[in-house]
Amino acid sequence: MRRPIQEASDQRGAPSPVQACRRGQASGEAAVLPDTTRDERAPLFVVSPHLDDAVFGCAALLAARPGAVVCTVFAGTPAVPQRQPWDRAAGFADSTAAMDERRREDERALAWCAARGVCLDFLDAQYGASPEVPALAEALAGQLARHAGAAPLLPLGLRHPDHRRVAAAWLALLRAGRVGACLVYEEAIHRAAPDETRRRLAELERAGLEITPLGVDWCPDREARRARGIKRRAVAAYASQLRAFGGTPLADLERPERYWRMEWRGATRCTT
């Protein structure tokens, strides 16, 4: 399977870091992708299932590491306007009005975090048939290739079928060797279901992933008052979604963000 990684070299004839990692220093060494997750200077490439998940789940980290790209997967608008219960609860007449305003909300929220957004045109599950996992995986691989050198930050895959599909897509890329180690975030609100995160982590461990929790000493600026304040302002930008959720689940947004580093168990590591 093709690995869509940019392999530009600064010097004619000299291998790029990616090429060097693939070739190894000795003949016969396993080919691996560089591990950008251990470089706190690397920009973040954040995958967000919907137009709020990245900010709800990791805005404090985004504030602490400005310059991130947030790629929202299910940001498409149905060709024929629909009237769905969630959109009505959010105050919209139809899907067109909903998605137009949700994209504007997302732009305002990401601006608070000094991040920028990229929107894919897959449709939210409420609007009809969900895309196949291979199609999602190819779309994400293409975006990752455009942001070579960034550290991928991916959703754990909690509860919602769209979240599960996105997680299945990045897991497929890991399995195929098209993504090396990755950072993973816990989706706010969805994590509030009892034992949801624990069960999901156990599931990924059984699948063969080596999972390392990242404590408060990892990127400690995300715990600072400034980052938490930016998160509150960014969250407030999603007025329509806060209206639809109502008050009860939103207390979860004040809980600390949680992160993990994940890679295949026993994978060869390259930090060049």
Tell me what you see in this structure.
By secondary structure, the chain is of the alpha/beta class. The chain has helices at 17-23, 53-64, 85-89, 95-112, 133-146, 161-175, 196-206, 225-236, 239-245; strands at 44-48, 69-72, 116-119, 151-155, 182-185, 209-214, 259-264. Helix 4 runs antiparallel to helix 8 (225-236) and helix 5 packs across helix 6. The radius of gyration is 19 Å and the shape is globular.
List its salient traits.
about 270 residues; alpha/beta; globular; Rossmann fold; 9 helices
Strand content: 5-15%
* Rg, alpha carbons: 19 Å
Q: What is the average of the pLDDT values? A: 87
* Main pleated-sheet profile: 7 strands, mixed
Q: How do the helices and strands line up, and which of them pair or pack?
A:
Elements: H1 17-23, E1 44-48, H2 53-64, E2 69-72, H3 85-89, H4 95-112, E3 116-119, H5 133-146, E4 151-155, H6 161-175, E5 182-185, H7 196-206, E6 209-214, H8 225-236, H9 239-245, E7 259-264
Helix pairs in contact: 2-8, 4-8, 5-6
Short description:
The chain is α/β, with parallel strands linked by helices and 272 residues long.
